[in-house]
Specification:
Distance between the termini: 49 Å
Largest sheet: 7 strands, antiparallel
Structural class: mainly beta
Helix content: under 10%
CATH class: Mainly Beta
CATH architecture: Sandwich
Order of helices and strands: HEEEEEEEEE
Oligomer: single chain
């Protein structure tokens, strides 16, 4: 993908589709007021997707961080749907019947509201057409919750309200543009 295509996608508020292993893509997360609270980079590796987060202006404490099934972030972010779960398992890293592909470790935000983290998620992909791809027809989203994920309780670990979201655009083609009707002949 050319730098021009990536720049155009970012300027349009979209997420540039990563189709090649090693490509690095970024998603901006915003709170319900539309303020940027961080950025997440995704990189396809041979062992899954490497996710690197850099956050600011988050409430102090532990927060659940998940991938959700729909690339839509309208406050209060219920539009992002449930957790990304292509294998229809139960919720939780500690659950013997789990985990969702979108389940990940909590984020610990120290005083000052700034946090960084990096995690490898082997249960997701950036490869279009892959069953575990975040780049399906309706995309997906990163969501930060107000509370801690207990890593057991279905469907979302008792993580509380959704406080920030960042949409990952899918592969669905854009809707066709309808031509204006021809003027009537007199």
């Amino acid at each position: 993908m050319s730098r021009l295509m990536i720049a155009a996608a970012l300027l349009c508020g979209g997420f540039a589709v990563a189709q090649e292993p090693g490509k690095l893509e970024k998603v901006e997360l915003k709170d319900a007021k539309g303020q940027k609270v961080g950025e997440v980079s995704l990189e396809q590796t041979p062992n899954g997707v490497l996710i690197t987060g850099d956050f600011t202006n988050l409430p102090v404490g532990m927060h659940a961080f998940h991938v959700h099934e729909t690339g839509k972030c309208e406050p209060p972010f219920k539009s992002a749907g449930g957790h990304f779960n292509p294998t229809t398992k139960k919720h939780g890293i500690k659950n013997k019947e789990g985990k969702h592909g979108g389940d990940m470790p909590n984020i610990d935000v120290p005083a000052g509201g700034k946090a960084k983290f990096q995690v490898l998620n082997p249960d997701i992909s950036l490869k279009p057409g892959d069953k575990a791809s975040l780049l399906d027809a309706d995309g997906s989203a990163f969501v930060i919750h107000a509370g801690v994920d207990d890593h057991m309780t279905d469907p979302a670990g008792n993580a509380g309200d959704r406080i920030a979201c960042g949409a990952i655009a899918g592969t669905a083609p854009a809707a066709p543009v309808k031509a204006a009707p021809a003027p009537a002949k007199k």
